Amino acid sequence: MDLKRKLFVLSIVFLCVTGIIFGAVFGGSNFSFSQYPSFSGFKPSAPFAYKNTISRWEYDSYKSDVEMYIQKVEQYIENADNDIDRIIQAQEEAIRTANMVVQEYNQFVKTIKVESR
Predict the structure, then answer these.
(1) 83, exposed or middle or buried, with CB in 10 Å at 0-12, 13-18, 19+?
(2) Residue of 73, 82, 64 whose CA lies nearest to 41
(3) In the 8-state DSSP scheme, what is residue 39?
(4) Residue 52 falls within a domain, yes or no?
(5) The pTM is what?
(6) Does a structural domain hold residue 51?
(7) Number of folded domains in the chain?
(8) Would residue 79 count as lying in a domain?
């Protein structure tokens, strides 16, 4: 294997390992700058059916619109799940960091003497 190929394989392995170690969440997101957005897809409208009859084209078009709408909803939900995972990971990291700070403090307090005035 040439050097470029080895470096490429090694970088892929590195990315996978760091993703596992640091709990990276891959995938889309719905986060915006202000607040969490609600789903904003346009609901498809049923075609007007004169005497309960529509053309094949109207039927197929409406069916396609509904399928696309459902795909967009599913994508929104998947992105929201990814965002929840990111939030949970951030919370867990904050807890880990706080626990380390408390442990450092406790260790520090055990090893020092405070002068009384």
Answers:
(1) middle
(2) 73
(3) P
(4) yes
(5) 0.60
(6) yes
(7) 1
(8) yes
Query: In terms of Cα–Cα distance, which of 36, 19, 35 is closest to 27?
Result: 19
Q: Is residue 33 part of a domain?
A: no
CA distance 51 to 35: 46
pLDDT of residue 106: 96
Q: Could you list the residue range(s) of the whole structural domain that residue 70 is in?
A: 46-104
- Helix then strand then coil, in percent of the chain rounded to 5, is 65, 0, 35
User: What is the DSSP secondary-structure string of 40-94?
Assistant: -PPPPPPPP-BTTB--HHHHHHHHHHHHHHHHHHHHHHHHHHHHHHHHHHHHHHH
Give 24-75 pLDDT, tens digit per residue.
Answer: 667 667 666 667 888 999 999 999 998 999 999 999 999 999 999 999 999 9
Phi, psi of 53 (to 5 degrees): -130, 135
Residue 20 has pLDDT above 50, yes or no: no
CA distance 47 to 49: 6
